[in-house]
Amino acid sequence: MSRAKLFVLAGPTAVGKGTVAAAMREQHPEIYLSVSATTRQPRPGEVDGVHYHFVTHEEFDRLVDEGQMLEWAVVHGINRYGTPRGPVEEALAAGRPALLEIDLQGARQVRESMPEAVFVFLKPPSWEELVRRLVGRGTEDEEERERRLATARQELAAESEFDVTIVNREVHAAVEELVALMVDSVHNE
């Protein structure tokens, strides 16, 4: 029996990481998709425990202090995001491949603690498309958009740190490319 692998999906803001992860959850329930904790407020339509675990700053501090976070970071200089360790380790131990959808800072932390993971960079087809997606979702004001675009420029420059790049031209195609990568890794053990 092959050992389940951890996959880390990261990329710039507004590239569609959350959309790809949601489609993956819906189409491939056999793959464990980590649910991150965050101190930010929910966006319209987001459900606690499904999209994120929305926690207070104090609760986040407790999780970090108790070593219950696989990774965590301050994102866009404001809110903290992190991956609870327990559920990921349980899924891998049960033989389920696991996917973390996280930011660049988090991916770097996971590389330190779990270098055997496969690191996948989700890239936009172009800078213009990334800007269009960020503006189009309409969830950030102008100041927040500018902060996220500045972060995105830095995140795009980190592509070479990843094992594989998937260009997110269309969600279904990106999901299928990611699933194929995960299936190949199991068969190549």
Give the averaged pLDDT, no decimals.
90
Residue fraction in strands = 15-25%
Q: First CA to last CA: what distance?
A: 9 Å
CATH class value? Alpha Beta
Number of strands: 9
Q: Counting H and I runs of at least 4 residues, what is the number of helices? A: 7
Radius of gyration: 16 Å
Q: What share of the residues lie within helices?
A: 40-55%
Question: What general form does the structure show?
Answer: globular
**SSE series:** EHEEEHEEHEHEHHEH
Unreliable stretches, pLDDT < 50, 5 or more residues?
Answer: none
Overall structural domain count: 1
Biggest β-sheet, characterized?
5 strands, parallel
* Assigned CATH architecture: 3-Layer(aba) Sandwich
In what order do the strands lie side by side in the largest sheet?
2-7-1-8-9
CATH fold name: Rossmann fold
Can you identify the CATH superfamily?
P-loop containing nucleotide triphosphate hydrolases
Report the structural category. alpha/beta
Topology:
Blueprint: E1 6-10, H1 17-27, E2 32-33, E3 37-38, E4 53-54, H2 57-65, E5 69-75, E6 79-84, H3 85-93, E7 98-101, H4 104-113, E8 118-123, H5 127-137, H6 142-156, E9 164-167, H7 171-187
Parallel strand pairs: 1-7, 1-8, 2-7, 3-4, 8-9
Antiparallel strand pairs: 3-6, 5-6
Helix pairs in contact: 1-7
What can you tell me about this protein's structure?
With 189 residues, the chain is an alpha/beta fold. The chain has one domain: Rossmann fold, CATH 3.40.50.300. Helices cover 43% and strands 20% of the residues. The protein is built from seven helices and nine strands; from the N terminus they run βαβββαββαβαβααβα. It has helices spanning 17-27, 57-65, 85-93, 104-113, 127-137, 142-156, 171-187; strands at 6-10, 32-33, 37-38, 53-54, 69-75, 79-84, 98-101, 118-123, 164-167. The strands form two sheets. The chain has a five-stranded parallel β-sheet with strand order 2-7-1-8-9, sandwiched between helices. Strands 4-3-6-5 form a four-stranded mixed β-sheet. Strand 5 (69-75) and strand 6 form a beta hairpin. Helix 1 crosses helix 7. The longest helix has 17 residues, at 171-187. The chain is globular and about 45 Å long. It starts with 5 loop residues before the first strand and ends with a helix. The mean pLDDT is 90.
